[in-house]
Model the fold of this input.
Amino acid sequence: MDGRASLNDTPSGNRIRIAFFGLRNAGKSTLVNAFCGQEIAIVSDVPGTTTDPVSKAMEILPLGPCLVTDTAGLDDEGQLGAERVRRTLEVLANTDMAIWVDGPCEAIGDASRRAEFMAECARRSVPVIEYRRGDSVDALRSRVASVKVAPEPGLLDGLVSSGDRVICVCPIDESAPKGRLILPQVQTIRDCIDRRATCVVCQPEELADCLAAERVRRRGVLVVTDSQAFGEVRRIVDAERAKMPSIRLTSFSILFARQKGDLAAYVNGMAAVAMLRDGDIVLVAEGCTHHRQCNDIGTVKIPKALGRLSGKKLSFEFSSGGSFPLSGVKKPSLIVHCGGCMLTRREVRRRISLAADAGVPILNYGLLLAMANGLRPEEVMP
Done:
């Protein structure tokens, strides 16, 4: 999985993560292949054959869309072995359900490693299913399917009901993908449809006409914009509020921050902008990897906005995908994170927790760009 999905795929951030763990030669890869019904992982009697996590997207009813991952043995040795174990534990950090695979026999030290793993899962509130090599794979599938995994809250929970109107402002500029909408826009539109709300999609130039048409209904409307268009959209919304005071405004990034993250933590992070000093390090983190444009939001627009707001000369570091570096020569003074549409709720909240443990304030893209356009948090948090 490289973070990209076809139009028919469930986004990886919306899949339940099921990962297989155990010691070397326990039979994890053989089990993963049998569980998925196809050859996903390389199988060998040589200990340490699986070196990197290998994942497969599949459907498991009644759970729904899942991502199944094979991992390296937790007893791997040497310098490379330690790196493999580190990557395996990174998988655990983003796992909703763990399968512990017991090998045919238990060697000295195996029991302690197993106990450590179970304790770590308990600390992370990750349910564990134990499987002994040779047991029924069909029985394992049934056990997995019966586990209750708490669903993520919806993007528009508490905001939109049947019959409501939502206007999605989707600028088509140099950063927009050719011939399609970006994932946050698509998921918001789908959430509207699921709630039997009416969704109107426009560019900023058409927003005034869309709002004028809504006046006839004399009902509230929610405007969801790309955060980068906050300035233009705010002017249009403010002009229309004199005639229709019930307009609510937010952004796709803020909706995802509300669904997957912790808005209170992000709002607290806004105060840290005024505390920045010359030379401070800011980590800009994105949950996906994509081709950088000349006017890229993460590497260009966010640094410019922070520079204007703080009035300081800052140093920026950037991370994307599964990377979230908080250790280095000097820890950052602030983290600015994307909405996290490609990440699971567990992963986004883990990152917020890591930032809190490190004493580093964290801020969301949408709230930062709202702040840069003079909007207060309460004006964009419906």
